[in-house]
Specification:
The protein is an alpha/beta fold. The chain contains eleven helices and nine strands.
Length: 307
């Protein structure tokens, strides 16, 4: 395989390991997992048909082929950086994931108004895959449910969700607005930790097999006429955040973060883009003044103000 055909990102990852001669330190500097870095190097060795690192060597040690690739890598990466970007930022779609319970319609609407020429792809992500979706670059950013391993990630907490208890409509607890854990004594509390499997849990509650404590948005998402939910007191709230790989903080992501944080349109790049496309008003103003002048309109001279 010709080294020139190697993906530049993977080549940079190889260089990081080759210079550090330590996979864990290299992975940390790249803001990726050590496992992902190891797999990338193994795949690279298989494609090249040769070993780049001496098997089992501690610390890591380059083979002759690895040393040669390291010598070639600098020029390859430099040439790749000199090439113009194939597409403008406005032509690239922003992929944003969201876990169950997160409503994204408000943000998508604002995005389409401010950046009509930049596609925004909203992708539902199972909660169990919220971290891997970011690590594997399936999405550029993701609305996640905390806690989450934040290594290599930027994350901004957005809001907290009060937990609620879901009970049958004719349950004795349905008459209360708020419920404490003491009120659930003797009740069978279903395991609702797996948000992705919550539909089955809700079915059990509807069948009269216990109750379930879930985030408020999840209760709304699976609302049924035969069930009600009441606010739980004394149970920690869950938190929703927007997370993205820190090393891949692009201009589009910064704009989306601004929208989610409530940044006004006037402080966004949308303002600058709109100024480039909107027609100039200078001509119209001059025409108005000329018409008034030609019609003989007289204005009282303005009083000069002292400095």
């Amino acid at each position: 395989m010709n080294p020139e055909s190697i993906d530049v990102t993977r080549l940079r990852w190889f260089v990081a390991v080759a210079e550090e001669l330590h996979f864990a330190r290299a992975a940390k500097s790249l803001h990726i997992s050590r496992q992902k870095l190891s797999h990338t190097v193994i795949d690279l060795e298989q494609e090249l048909g040769t070993k780049l690192f001496v098997p089992g060597a501690q610390p890591a040690q380059l083979t002759e082929a690895g040393q040669q690739l390291l010598r070639d890598a600098g020029d390859i990466i430099a040439r790749a950086e000199e090439k113009p970007a194939p597409m403008a930022a406005e032509d690239v779609a922003l992929r944003v994931g969201f876990v169950p319970g997160v409503t994204v319609s408000k943000w998508t609407r604002i995005w389409s108004e401010r950046f009509p020429n930049t596609p925004l792809e909203m992708l539902p992500i199972p909660m169990a895959e919220q971290l891997t979706a970011l690590r594997d670059e399936r999405v550029d950013a993701c609305f996640v449910r905390l806690p989450i391993d934040r290594e290599g990630l930027s994350a901004i907490p957005l809001y907290r969700e009060l937990p609620v208890v879901v009970v049958p409509k004719d349950h004795t607890l349905s008459i209360f607005e708020q419920v404490g854990m003491g009120d659930l004594e003797g009740e069978r509390i279903q395991d609702s930790s797996d948000i992705d499997a919550i539909a089955g849990t809700i079915e059990l509650v509807a069948a009269g097999v216990g109750v379930a404590i879930v985030p408020h948005s999840i209760a709304r998402l699976y609302a049924r006429r035969d069930l009600v939910y009441r606010t739980m007191m004394g149970v920690p709230a869950t938190e929703i955040a927007l997370a993205w790989p820190a090393a891949h903080t692009t201009e589009l992501i910064e704009e989306f973060v601004g929208i989610v944080r409530g940044r006004s349109e006037h402080s966004s790049r949308a303002q600058a883009q709109r100024k480039k496309t909107e027609p100039k008003k200078t001509t119209a103003k001059r025409s108005t003044r000329n018409v008034a002048k030609n019609a003989g309109a007289k204005k009282k001279p303005a009083k000069r103000r002292g400095r």
